[in-house]
Known about the structure:
Elements: H1 3-16, H2 22-32, H3 35-44, H4 55-72, E1 76-79, E2 98-103, E3 111-115, H5 122-137, E4 141-144, H6 150-160, E5 165-168, H7 182-191, E6 193-196, H8 208-219, E7 222-225, H9 233-243, E8 248-251, H10 258-264, E9 269-272, H11 275-289
Parallel strand pairs: 3-4, 3-7, 4-5, 5-6, 7-8, 8-9
Antiparallel strand pairs: 1-2, 2-6
Helix pairs in contact: 1-3, 1-4, 5-6, 5-11, 8-9
Amino acid sequence: MVPELCERAALVALLQRPGAKWQDIAIEVLETGSAVAVLESVLRLQDTLFPETDPVVSAIAGAAETLRGWEAAGIEVHACFDPGYPSQLRSIHQMPPLLFSRGALTHDRRAIAVVGTRQASEQGLRIASAVATELALNDVTVVSGLARGIDTAAHTAALKAHGRTVAVIGTGINRFYPSENRALQERIAGEGAVISQFWPDAPPSKQSFPMRNAVMSGYAAATVVVEAPWKSGARIQARLALEHGRPVVMPDQLLEHDWAREYAKKPGVHVVAGLEELLSVVEQLISDLHTGPESLPEAHHLAWSS
Length: 306
């Protein structure tokens, strides 16, 4: 077995163990420099005195067979130590040890997330579409979560503008959630990329969507929050984006919410009034992405135009 496949299989074997803590495993593997070495340290401790078979060899062989099955089903698997793994995710605490994808996964350093509530207003849908169109026309990848409402509007607008869009989903890559977005998910896989941090057949859960928001925030260089009540995943993503050092852009209509007023005081948050000004800030973010995400502008507050 080639070393690259052996390492990837060892990581899968580690993650498949009951009670495995994925984040801890990812950190240990990167610090050690070898998933095989970590697997050996775990399994050798549990050896019987005279094992009939080598547990490490057996575990790697089984995981390699699983990997071949995923590959045969058209699923690409990216380990956190692979060269093709999105490098921007390695800077966040919630870095997934594995990413599953369909479509063309790239490093997408020029990417901005557009997120918001599933129960979107007509104005919210219009704003999401306009922002996503602006990004797509400027060769910036539109990142969203494939949920109903704002996410769907953002993905759809990016595709309509012939731009690149990436869907970060809260289920396994083999699932379609919500079911009415199946055709959209398949189109994104064909023209952009769909990525998931969960086992391919994993169903949706209460925990999976906040985890998805963390990866979406880490993947993008900035997040535009269009509409977001207190309990929405978009609010969670705004918090995570600030933790990750990514700018957050939001319209001042969100200031009706306590959380938004609190966030508006934080460095890195741009509060804008009206679609025109929101697009102006987005254009500035796009401009600064030419020199890298680390050069994104300082936060500022824009007032309504007179």
